[in-house]
Each structure stands twice: as structure tokens, then as C-alpha cells.
Amino acid sequence: MGLYVMWTDMRWPRMIKTAVSAAAALVLVAILIPMTNPPEREIGGVYLVDEEVEIGVYGPEAPADREVIEIYAPRYTAVILEPTATPEPVIVYCNNGGRYYHTEDCKYVNDDTPYVKLNKAVEAGYTKCAECDAPEAY
Ligand SMILES: [Zn+2]
């Protein structure tokens, strides 16, 4: 349609009209050819030419100062579904004015020996009694 209007209505020199028409035709062909007749390509692949296979890898050399970084790509992500138990508070016995914390049945513990949580005893400066099996401070 555009070309027809150009040929009939416009007052362009015949050469230009011909050139525009040819260009339009070329564009049309260039668009149509790949759609109808895709260019043939060589099929890539590896083929053996002898019984002994020799494979060469070609490419740009790696920079000499490049750091080698091992990439760790886990295939699975462990999901731990076990509930974390709320730790029972560890109770120890500390005599007033003493330096050590004790278990309940330590010989240094009396009926009136105050008991506290282990972390509180440690914060207060008490250390593990060597006589009883007091729990380690964490
Ligand atoms: Zn003790």
C-alpha cells in the first residue's frame, strides 16, 4: 500500500522510487527468509577419530594471580527439627561467705545453705567445689 501510494501520488524522481522499492523488497526478503528457510548450521558434537582419545581444552589462560576459591555448593540443607529443650536451671548451693558452689548432698551444704542458679553463683564469684561433683560452669 505504501509503495503504491508513493508510485502514484508522490512526485519523486523515478530512480528514488525504484531504490526505495528495492530497499523495501530487500527488507521484506530479509525478514521472510529466516522464517521460511532457516540457515543450516553445523551440528556440534564430539566425534572420535582414533581409538586413543585426546582432548585438548583451549581458552584464555587463567590469570596467574587469580585466587583459587573453592565453591561449596551444598546439595541438601539440613533442617533440624528436634526441639531445643529449655535447659533446666542448674541449682547449686553456696554458703554465705564461701568461695565454692556445691551440690545438694555435699558435706559443706547444710539445711540452711542458700541455693541459687549456677550462673548466678558464677556471677557472684563462686567456683566449683573440689569435694563434691558440682556441675561445671557453662
Ligand atoms: Zn562441695
Note the main attributes of this structure:
binds zinc ion; four-stranded mixed β-sheet; alpha+beta; about 140 residues
Question: What do you see in this structure?
Answer:
With 138 residues, the chain is α+β, with helices and mostly antiparallel strands. Among the domains are: 2-36; 91-128, no CATH class. Helices cover 27% and strands 9% of the residues. The chain is built from three helices and four strands. The protein has helices at residues 2-9, 14-36, 118-123, and strands at 91-94, 100-102, 115-117, 127-128. Strands 3-1-2-4 form a four-stranded mixed beta sheet. A hairpin with a 5-residue loop joins strand 1 (91-94) and strand 2 (100-102). The longest helix has 23 residues, at 14-36.
